[in-house]
Protein 1
Amino acid sequence: MERNPSELSKTKFDLVVIGGGINGAATAREAVLRGLKVALVEVGDFAAGTSSRSSKLIHGGLRYLEQFDFRLVRESRLERRLLRDIAPHLARPLPFLLPIYHGDPYYPLKIRAGLMLYDLLGNLGREDRHRMLSPRETLELVPALRPEGLRAGAVYHDSETDDARLTIEMVIDAAERGAVVANYTEVRALALTTQAGGRAGDLVAAEAQDRLTGRRHEISSRFWVNATGPWVDHVRALVPGFDGSRTIRLTKGTHLILPQIAPHHALFAAIPSDNRIFLMLPWNGYSLLGTTDTDFQGDPAGVQPDRADTEYLLSAVNRVLRQPITSNQVLGSFAGLRALVIEPGESPSANTREHRFHQDPWARNIISICGGKLTTARALGEKLVDEIIDRLDPSPGIAASRHPSRQIPLPGGRTGPFEAFVKSSTERAAAEFGLPRTLAERIVRTYGSRWPLVLGLTREDKRLSEPLQGTPTLLAAEVEFAIRHEMAVTLEDFLLRRSGLNWAACTPAGSEAAPAVAQIFARHLGWDAERRKTALDNFAKLAGSGVRK
Ligand code: FAD
């Protein structure tokens, strides 16, 4: 996947997708698989918005059962199965332990009934079904739990992903199949045909600016999708005729990175004080604790965790832990914004997570995506492209009724049964490339069936087979691969969104890789010492933006 924004003005596209988060990526991939001429433009890096700041779960949303949102749970459970097939490296089944304490808003019988329904709505087979546990069995699974007041436990299953890599693999697939994709390219203006007699106009062109060079490109297309998540109303406002209305409500969700507390199970537990739940996942050798859900009014680009978020999350988890976690054990944090379809009067947590396609009456050929989930993004893209194809005159090469994205693997997804693949590929990678097993396994798990492409680079240049100074588990070849084949332009593009470390790159241990990564960027992109220093400063600023105490 190569970055070449000048291609944007060479074609009249069928569809231009604005925004390279998971929803934009899934829509662009779907459209190109169905035969449309597609472009995707992203103002920052792919997945740099909400799509790298989630809880990283491919989940049915057990909590949505309480809201009787069976349709969303069913669809999410189906998508989880589907992702296991097309991207097993990015949808790894994860057991959840749900401890039930005195004082929780639910009791064991209610949980049992809810989990039976959850299983009925779709699981991955016998191993994936829930089971109820006694207090003793619960503590055996997670000894860190507080025994006092524990009434019972339950184990059920969802899946864990790397949200940023999931997004980027969708973008890569779209690009490899012919879409023109460009990160660091901002849509700044949109042109509409005149609206005679009060009728809707057609959006005919966009002006996009390459943020790396300052160059402007005019893009023209028959149809447009505004997939800008928290910025969706900002982009609607670029269309002449905008009436100042809002379609989404923003709520902030913060996560904390903690030392490893429960290595084999995620925890799902009640926060009785405000009738919410928290999740704590085993993640990159740490525990990832989330999340808050508070209304957010500011500039979406400025969202950050704050002290109140840390206090709220620690008090929630400490209620169920034997040994409380203190704020100085927090190793990092990050925040993201949910862009929820507006439901007046609902509390943030009760607000629907369903998506909506919004059509403004003054512009005929642009649809804005409001809301959605990482888990259901593929299905969202499918439904949206169905609608777009319906509205464009289908030309012969365009498939109106096929749904190829249900079967075609993502680029790293050609693995077959995943654990057997990891075992055999790890052995091969370790033997062929002389790598320690743990490193070989991490690379296989991160890149799935593309791992030989990453390690193949070491044959060109022996220096690339060396682990990066400061982080023995990252290889120089991965940085080179991200620059050459995955459109990485900055240190954080690699560290946060392509290496598999995700926000763990911003912990003190993760950040130690930054100078070595900068050296490879400098060599590859011809950075001088000053440019390298700026890149390191920018990364340090980002890593420091999480509140540690
Ligand atoms: P984004 O990822 O925000 O993408 C929008 C993109 O548009 C951005 O990258 C932005 O830079 C770009 N953009 C903006 N303006 C322009 C412009 N003018 N030109 C070009 N590009 C532009 N879902 C799950 O399924 N599982 C979970 O565990 C989960 N956990 C979550 C936890 C939290 C705290 C939050 C906040 C959300 C969670 N979600 C989860 C929901 C999920 O993360 C989001 O639904 C999803 O990431 C939204 O993707 P998006 O593409 O709509 O938005």
Protein 2
Amino acid sequence: MKNNILTMAFILLATNLVNSQKAELPDALQKKWWKEAVVYQIYPRSFKDSNGDGVGDLKGIISKLDYVKSLGVDAVWLNPIYASPNDDNGYDISNYREIMKDFGTMEDFDVMLKEMHKRGIKLIMDLVVNHSSDENKWFQESRKSRDNKYRDYYHWWPAEKGKPPYRWSFFDVNSNAWKFDAQTNSYYLHYFSEKQPDLNWENPKLRQEVYAIMKFWLDKGIDGFRMDAFQFISKDNTFPDLPKEIVNTPAAIIKYYLNGPHLHDYIQEMNKEVLSKYPNAMTVAEGAGDSPEAAMKFVDPDRKELNIAYHFESVDVGKHLKDFGLVKYKSIFSKYDDKFEDKGWLSIFLANHDQPRMVSKFGNDTPQFRELSSKMLSTFVLTMRGTPFYYNGDELGMDNIRFDSIEDYQDVDTRNKYIGIKNKGGDLNAFLAIQKQSSRENSRTPFQWNTEKNAGFTTAKPWLKVNPNYKTINAEAQEKDPNSVLNYFRKLVKLRKQEPALVYGKYTLLDKENPNVFAYTRELNGKKILVLLNFSEKNAPYNIKIPIAKSKIILGNYKIKKINILQPYEAQIIELK
Ligand code: NOJ
């Protein structure tokens, strides 16, 4: 009896101790699956076509899940697969509870989810609710009459009040976010294309519709959401005239869009009504304001909003690393990490379906350096603090296709801007030259599986041209080569999974002013890892003393190392003992 009481007392004491230690851990060290995960982004249209119509689909993804599993990743973020007329490749949704015909059926979806979960892969879906498609039932109703019950699901401006105050649009031919609709003699708002009318979040009924959609998918068993254009959802419905300096530049107007009056109230409401009921779901908003402080607001745990901040400063910095330089680039990551050292959580990414290929922007895609610099960039993404979001095809070192002709582009962004410039008699050649480097189409070309026709992506004509370099850059060839970009990526993922210091460890930037080398340490519980990355095509010295006897290289992209110097695009991960 006495022994029992003693044992009980001991257990209580021990439990309290563990709990109090837990309570003392800063938020950034609290364990969460989504902090430890490597997220692999699949662009479904371009991943694998199973039925020979030239468009990737869900059955195609299912057929490649063993490949996805073999990468070692934990979760897949899938771009939108909902019913859509595809004005913006699925970012214009006509029915939030149906699957796009091109991609398959709800049965296919259920099988895909089950097969992912069977392999221990989680599924993150895209939630696109800043706008819908103009073919969505809500909008079809809304535009019928001014007293339709869906009228206030969108933003309307009655024409008798005159022209609405100017708002800039990302994809409109004339960059004008207001479109006149004769049926009710009113203008509607579209920050993106005219087929993507903005939803009115100031209407509580609309918000309830969104929450119901979220529950529908979460109840199906998905593991979270990436929230499209989320920083734009809240608007000042009076649409005041904007100061001249804002109206005149797109960059300034985007800044204005970020500051919607009730943005964070709505996210908190969503958290209360939906997310708090699914505590394991991962949530990441696309865009996170224009500063580390603004980004923190989305993910500060005390505010009860979202999990991961996905900010754009590190990709919006310029067209190519050569233009903005490594010192500036390093300072952006360091500035954000500094703010997030103790709480909140960031994502780390260099590419996605809206960006050119990672190697073409931050690396060097000439034959001499493409593989080396791809490996170096992957090393960066997999060793930084923050959840890696890794874009499909980058693990092969796929690069920009650089279309010559406007006919090759399918993207509403490029096509509409082209028409806009043409209408104004602008310089179309200059525009096309820029698109070669920065168009989103560069990262949307079909996945390069093998050397068969169309890179093994489809047996039909692919919806977007396949990069002709698939004969040399493809997954099948790289499977066989132990030194391939693909197999190097796998080693990196494995290392991150084995080494908590790479997930939770403190980040410290070294040799800050070095124009070619990005060097940092990651430290946790006495373990210290040094990462050295040469972002240039030259040998690059660095100013860091490494105790050679007390260090061990864990992974790198060169077989032979040199002392105190990094070779072109060299990456080294070193354990310091
Ligand atoms: C961001 C998405 O990533 C992009 O592809 C899309 O065009 C816009 N939001 C509009 O939904």
Protein 3
Amino acid sequence: QQPIGVLAVVGRKGNRDLKDSQLMSNIGSALGFSLENLRQEEALRASEEKFRDLVENTSDVMWEMDENGVYTYCSPNVASILGYEPEELIGKTPFDFMPPEEAKRVGDLFGTIVAERKPFSLLAHQTRYKDGRLGVMECSGSPMFDEDGRFAGYRGVDRDISERKRAEEELRESEERFRQMAEQIRDLFWLREVETGDVVYASPAYETIWGRPLQQAYEDPKDWIESILPEDKERVSASFERMLQGESYEEEYRISRPDGSIRWIRDRGYPVRDQDGRIYRLTGIAEDITARRRAEETIRHLAYHDSLTDLANRTMFEDRLTVALAQARRKGRMAAVMFLDLDRFKVVNDTVGHALGDDLLQGVGERLTGLVREGDTVARLGGDEFTLLLAEVERAEDMVEVAERVLDTLRQPWVLNGHEFRITTSIGIAMFPNDGEDADSLLSNADTAMYRAKDQGRDNYKLYTPAMNARIVERLALENSLRHGLERGEFLVYYQPQVDIASGRIVGMEALVRWQHPERGLVFPAEFIPVAEETGLIVPLGAWVMRTACAQNKAWQAAGFPPMRVAVNLSARQFQQRNFTKMVDEVLKEADLEARWLQLEITEGVAMQDVESNIALLRELRQMGVQIAIDDFGTGHSSLSYLSRLPIDVVKIDQSFIQDLTTDPNGAAIARSIIVMAHNLKLRVIAEGVETEEQLAFLKKRRCDEMQGYLFSKPAPAEAFEEMLKQSGRTPRDRRPVEASR
Ligand code: C2E
Ligand code: CA
Ligand code: CA
């Protein structure tokens, strides 16, 4: 019966060496009554059940077929798998359950297997279920041989792999769908491994957007970040890093392509988590938004530019002005707005026509743009009105210079369509902060000033504040005549004696510059030194004074007068010149004057400006043998002990303390302590501006070394000074001759 039949099959399967006849005899004896037999029977039943369980619960159908492929056995679980009872299969071949095509394919395959009596495994084939559906079975089998070793067919198992196949197919399908999508779309899909940083997937759009081979994206995962422009890189990589903390990422950035072109990218990314919620991948889409960006830029450009001249329009001008004002305010600088209006442009327009009028306006824009500095802005407000923003103005004079250049440039003839003609311009200037604190008031004040320029005959400029006009004009005139004065040799050096207080002898002199102005007469340094310093003219002027003073000093030595020092004043600008020491050295060589007869005076303020580099410079000068004096000492409120760090020789007490000496106890106290402390530091002290005997008496008592002042002599031209030298050695009271060494 059935169980025994199964047992027989299973038994054979369990013990392949057991022959059928033996098996049958075993069963026969199992039907006997011996205890031994009963026990065996019991054991058999147990094992039978075990195998039945196995057979019924396994999803593998077991079968046997003869040498023609006809089923001779089939395990009962075939019913639950294919729907057929085993009997329905017995006597049929597997090919009877296949569609014709498949039957032929598998039949051919099977034919060769059988011919070679080979075992086979994992042969997948279609099989029809009883309900008509088509499934896929995977079958394995091995040849059977009878006792005589003759081939008796195949024995094997079929496993239903339809589900797996379907799942595989579905996966393949979905991957295919994704691939089609990802590869058709113009955006780059990317997927990265967190741990390794490797690129798991990059769609082919990488090639079109990045202009690099797709392979590179995989082989060099840094390729992507390296392609980003330096200006954007840091921001993007910081944002990318935040994805690892679970944030989503969205950035717009620029990449540079191997052909040198720049592309704008919009990149969005998302973290991908595993079942445990751990972020293990990052994925995203990058699109090329270059076109959109360009369009935006164009729109922005249109919104901020004048379409005719492509200059800034009013909106942009006001924006820039507001920014510039904020900056100027912060830096404590000036800024200027110029309002330009072409004179009689309407006439031009009417005579040559609008088209040429437009050409002219464009030309004006070009000429103006060529004039200003990088940070400045040229705008066209409309019609023939232009504005200039000078973002950083150091001196009002600079601004006026620009205005003059503008007038001059626009005055140059225009050739349009074969016609040559000239136009002029009127300019109004408003300055921040003098003439207004905000964009609106500066613009409207510049406008007002422009109308004044028109009223006063056109082709000129006017500052909004009238007083400024006069001051600046004067200042500019001074600057110009200073320059000319230097070229024409209008300067003189006066000498003021420095007298040793103890002996009353002239031991030195200070060189003080004078300007012999052709119209104004003798001009004092207070009037022109500040302008010379601002314009830098002090550098050639100071060098000239030094050369003249050294040459004069040498001349007096050569004439047989006892040698003296000559003190020359230095401005900060000169002091800051590179090669300053070299220049001094050259002057000395040129004059053939020993360095010890030259003394350089720097004011306390200059000395204290950049102490460290001053120390080095002063040390160098002193090594050459030049003496250093600190001028106007006491005015800078620096302590003498601080001064002691500087390598110097002489301290000059400022005039203001000397003036107060006999009237103000404070002045006296200050002068006294300067002398004491300077002596402690082994410095000599010169008192400046000594005008009275009382002052001199005080200084003598306090052992001040030298004096300089009207009491002895005013600064004098070289000839007068020489007269003084001839009578040298006399105090102002008794001008007794000294033991002159001539
Ligand atoms: P400073 O270096 O303090 O020069 C001393 C000034 O005091 C001189 O004025 C001199 O004429 C004046 N003075 C001398 N004795 C008396 C006095 O008893 N009473 C009064 N009230 N004044 C007296 P000066 O010549 O007008 O020069 C003024 C300043 O111009 C100088 O001050 C110096 O800072 C500058 N200076 C003159 N020449 C040069 C130069 O060649 N280069 C540079 N960088 N600055 C110079
Ligand atoms: Ca001086
Ligand atoms: Ca002085």
